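Let us work through a complete example step by step.
Step 1: write down the sequence.
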Amino acid sequence: MIKNFVFDMGRVLIYYDTIRFIERYDVTNDEKELLKKEVFDSKEWQRLDDGTLTEDEFHDILKTKLPSHLHDIAYKLIYYWDDPIEEVRGMYDLIKTIKEKGFNIYLLSNAAQRQHLYWPRIGASKFFDGKVISADVKVVKPNPRIYEILFNKFNIRPEESFFVDDVEVNVQAARALGMQGYVFNHDAEQLRAYLEKHVFNQD
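Step 2: predict the structure and record it as tokens.
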């Protein structure tokens, strides 16, 4: 019987579109592609998620790769990509429903340490019972260790847990550990219908 829900964050709870973040600024198409490549698609951005690089260190690296007139924009992309933050349509209401039905709700996210700063600005965060962030534990999904850290930290059993992520390999890793899983496709109502059929009315 499912007792716990575990959610990813980016592209599940909040919209995460790196091109839209860059388009907040007055840049050419070539500069847009350069910023996407050197900021969001870089190995350094991944190192923010695994906790082995700080934002200041990343900005210093970018200053050696980008022309000087893009340094300030790069800084803003690192520190303020989440301002404003936009929640995926329908997810607040679905999370609220899940909480009202008595389930425990947890977050398991590949994210940098600044996640702790913007998390309270996500409306649905108030329904969560706890979270594990990759930068804090220095391991990222789909490594099984980060799921096990979640299980141990909150004393939850994988076979009693339902995992929602937009990345299929992350869901596959969860299933391999005994969780039920769902690959989210940005449609909260479709997820709600699935849960109504397969989870909410469980005996």
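Step 3: interpret the result. The first strand starts at residue 4 and ends at 7.
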